[in-house]
Amino acid sequence: MQVGGIQIPDEFYTILAYVTTYSYLYKLAGSIFIFFVFWGFKNLFTNYIFHFILNLIHRNKVNPENSFLMAISNPSKNMIVLVGVYLALQNCLPGTFNSLLSSLFRSGIIILFASAIYGLISYYAENQEEINRIFNREIDRILIPFLSKVLKFIVLALSFVTIASTWGYDVNGFIAGLGLGGLAFALAAKDLLANIFSGIIIITDKPFSIGDWVKTSEIEGTIEDINFRSTKIRAFDQALVTVPNSKLVNDPIINFTKRSMRRITFQIGVVYSTPSYKLKVCIAEIEKILRVHPNIDQKTIFVKFDAFGDSALQLFLYFFTTTIVWEEYLNIKQDINLKIMEVLENEGVSIAFPSTSVYVETPVQYHTLEK
């Protein structure tokens, strides 16, 4: 049939006749009612479900104001509205649309579900203290952003594959292509991946943290930054050294910051003319100084007459300070050294220095030349 010169298919009039029947108008009214019921009660339904979950959370002593429920509130409400839209359309549309409606509904559910998980990941990535409380341990601040990005990518990839499968697309070839592409990338970026995995090992194993004083076979300094490719170390001459993580993982690392104490050990050489009784007094007085010092660990203190040196009697000292702070360590060491000097001065004992004595067997004859 033509209207105003425009050809209108006969099916249009068939559909128009169908939708203007009383039975269809009743269905349409019912669909509108269903939609507005779900729309109007979405907050009530969501709050009821959240209230039930909050009761469970209260039993586990988790603060609901900081809970993940706030991150999934909107996706949950939209999911309820989507259910209402699906039921309303299914009620008023002919059965030939059921397959299309079902695919659209499943796709919408997948998108909203993925959105909720995505929001949860973002929420916990921004609220590290909640993750620490859940796992009852301190999670590294560098690891969380990395895991967040990985999990978000996985959520998006799975959502895409699932939706494509819902619409009847064969995703096996796509997955196989991802596998081959991943293999090619792994071969091309072998060193990069080695550094990334080494970075993960460093972050999870925690042989050192930012601010630690470390020493490797080639560099000594303070850790300034740790990322997934390299670690930056500030050397004591203030040069910034960037070390690939794969090298650090395979290299012995001394972490001086992890010490609970700092060792002091040295030798004092006194002159050979020192009587033995004075040497005993000096040893006892020096050990007494260490025993009463508030910043010296009392578990390990050694003050011993160690050896007969080439030009001195050697006293051996070995003890630990209770601090690992460099400046405090130097102040303690200085204080001990000054007190040792006072002991030696009070006892009249001289500190030896390298010297050589020459003994002449035959006296030298001096002749006076007469003019």
TrEMBL record:
Membrane topology: Multi-pass membrane protein
Keywords annotated in UniProt: Cell membrane, Membrane, Transmembrane, Transmembrane helix
Residues covered by the Mechanosensitive ion channel MscS domain: 191-258
Sequence ranges assigned to domain Mechanosensitive ion channel transmembrane helices 2/3 in this UniProt record: 149-190
Gene Ontology process terms (BP): transmembrane transport
Transmembrane segments: 32-57, 78-97, 103-125, 146-167, 173-193
Domain of life: Bacteria
A GO CC term assigned to this protein in UniProt: plasma membrane
Main localisation: membrane
Domain Mechanosensitive ion channel MscS C-terminal: 264-351
Compartments in which it is found: Cell membrane
Family: Belongs to the MscS (TC 1.A.23) family.
Protein name (database record): Small-conductance mechanosensitive channel
